[in-house]
């Protein structure tokens, strides 16, 4: 079910971000998307783009060389939840801010609730929809409009060490049930197949999404939460058992300092991770040529071949004086071959949102992965709409929800269970919605 703008706005207030933005204009101020559209500028202009991507100005300069009348200047900000969003909210509240901001897909609903983003449908963005991956376009096309341009994403696959699998006499698991047997064989050689960071539940949420979960949705005039569904509990029981049987370590998270130490010592055999993990893997000491990529194990008939972890948009912020030009730059950056190749080469973006082009450097084999053409063999199929859960959608307090769930998951080390943590978190998230003035109820059993 697609959420309409009327649905979203009547489902409650905007929480802390709303308080920040209440000073954007005086009483009776006109919401940005009910004002008259702003026509293109008559003369040269300069756009500003706030993002935590590295060397983004080099990407902008490719555009600037061809479009001197629409210059784009990039400014680095901390990652969204590390201060970047706070900076954007504060700038919006003061009547300023950039023309374009990097906003994660899971955070778009909160920006929309506080009237912080331009509806690009009013500027003709639908004419470009067929250039994008359908699933990613759906992630920004809700509340009756289009509130960001997909910038990148992270389809999941399984990075693994063939030599460690061979030493353990194990096969690469095609299902999560097979994963259990593979993990047991690995433990017999004093190797862990995987790790699970109990303090970061975004990875768990991605696997629940793969299994077919749909944690929040809108029905009528209220949010409906259903975290204790069969798909989510299947994933929780799987990892409860894996932790209890010492098949997986919770001592560290993927790509942390101790993880790199374990991976370099041959004590970690695989990582179920997003496409952008390929660059992080290359920091494993003496890892070149040792790793390969396989499809993500699946959960069964009710699940999907893959899932997404991460993904950002280039969103036009409400105070932009040049939304048409900002949209045109974002479209170029994310769908043209020049833009995509520049984003990969300079900023190391995740998976391209383009329907037809993944990037020149990702078409062939990679030396680090033993010459495997893993992007075209594994990640390209994993990103296709049919491989992804079409019913998953984000909600206004996603990060707070993840924090609540993480608090419960941490109790696993002292005798708790992930299953119990999910049920407890569901109750706490209902309370958090209510405290923010959002109408919510639990799904009927």
How would you describe the overall organization of this protein?
- By secondary structure, the chain is α/β, with parallel strands linked by helices.
- It folds into two domains: 5-151 and 313-361, Periplasmic binding protein-like II (D-Maltodextrin-Binding Protein, domain 2), CATH 3.40.190.10; 155-307 and 391-442, 3-Layer(aba) Sandwich (D-Maltodextrin-Binding Protein, domain 2).
- The chain has 17 helices and twelve strands.
- The chain has helices spanning 5-10, 15-21, 56-66, 84-93, 108-113, 134-140, 162-168, 176-187, 202-211, 230-244, 257-264, 277-281, 323-335, 337-347, 374-382, 398-409, 418-435, and strands at 45-51, 70-76, 100-104, 141-142, 145-146, 149-160, 216-219, 222-225, 270-274, 292-295, 308-316, 440-442.
- Strands 1, 2, 3, 6, 9, 10 and 11 form a seven-stranded mixed sheet that branches. Strands 7-8-12 form a three-stranded mixed sheet, with helices on one face. A two-stranded antiparallel ribbon has the order 4-5.
- α13 (323-335) crosses α14 (337-347).
- The longest helix is centred in the C-terminal third of the chain and has 18 residues, at 418-435.
- The protein is globular, with a radius of gyration of 22 Å.
- The two termini are 20 Å apart.
- 49% of the residues are buried.
């Amino acid at each position: 079910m697609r959420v309409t703008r009327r649905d979203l706005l009547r489902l409650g207030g905007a929480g802390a971000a709303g308080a920040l933005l209440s000073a954007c204009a005086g009483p009776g101020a006109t919401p940005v998307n009910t004002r008259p559209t702003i026509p293109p500028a008559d003369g040269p202009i300069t756009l500003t783009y706030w993002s935590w991507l590295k060397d983004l100005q080099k990407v902008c300069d490719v555009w600037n060389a061809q479009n001197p009348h629409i210059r784009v200047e990039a400014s680095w900000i901390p990652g969204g939840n590390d201060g970047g969003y706070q900076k954007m909210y504060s700038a919006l509240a003061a009547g300023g801010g950039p023309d374009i901001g990097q906003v994660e897909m899971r955070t778009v609903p909160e920006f929309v609730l506080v009237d912080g983003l331009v509806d690009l449908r009013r500027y003709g963005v639908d004419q470009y929809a067929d250039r994008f991956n359908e699933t990613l376009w759906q992630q920004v096309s809700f509340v009756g409009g289009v509130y960001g341009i997909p910038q990148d994403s992270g389809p999941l696959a399984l990075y693994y060490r063939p030599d460690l699998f061979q030493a353990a006499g194990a096969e690469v698991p095609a299902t999560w049930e097979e994963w259990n047997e593979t993990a047991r064989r690995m433990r017999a050689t004093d190797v862990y197949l995987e790790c699970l960071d109990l303090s970061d539940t975004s990875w768990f949420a991605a696997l629940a999404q793969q299994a077919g979960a749909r944690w929040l949705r809108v029905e009528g005039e209220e949010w409906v939460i259903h975290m204790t569904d069969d798909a989510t509990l299947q994933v929780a029981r799987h990892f409860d058992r894996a932790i209890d049987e010492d098949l997986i370590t919770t001592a560290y998270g993927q790509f942390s300092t101790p993880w790199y130490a374990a991976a370099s010592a041959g004590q970690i055999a695989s990582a179920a991770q997003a496409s952008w993990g390929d660059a992080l893997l290359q920091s494993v000491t003496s890892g070149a040529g040792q790793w390969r990529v396989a499809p993500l194990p699946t959960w069964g008939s009710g699940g999907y071949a893959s899932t997404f972890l991460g993904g950002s948009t280039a969103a036009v912020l409400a105070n932009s004086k040049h939304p048409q030009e900002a949209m045109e730059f974002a479209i170029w950056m994310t769908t043209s071959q020049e833009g995509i190749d520049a984003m990969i080469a300079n900023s190391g973006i995740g998976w391209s949102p383009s329907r037809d082009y993944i990037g020149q450097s990702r078409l062939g084999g990679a030396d680090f992965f033993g010459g495997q053409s893993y992007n075209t063999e594994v990640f390209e199929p994993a990103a296709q709409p049919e491989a992804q859960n079409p019913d998953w959608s984000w909600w206004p307090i996603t990060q707070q929800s993840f924090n609540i769930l993480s608090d419960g998951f941490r109790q696993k080390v002292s005798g708790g269970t992930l299953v119990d943590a999910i049920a407890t978190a569901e109750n706490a998230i209902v309370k958090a919605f209510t405290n923010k003035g959002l109408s919510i109820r639990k799904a009927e059993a």
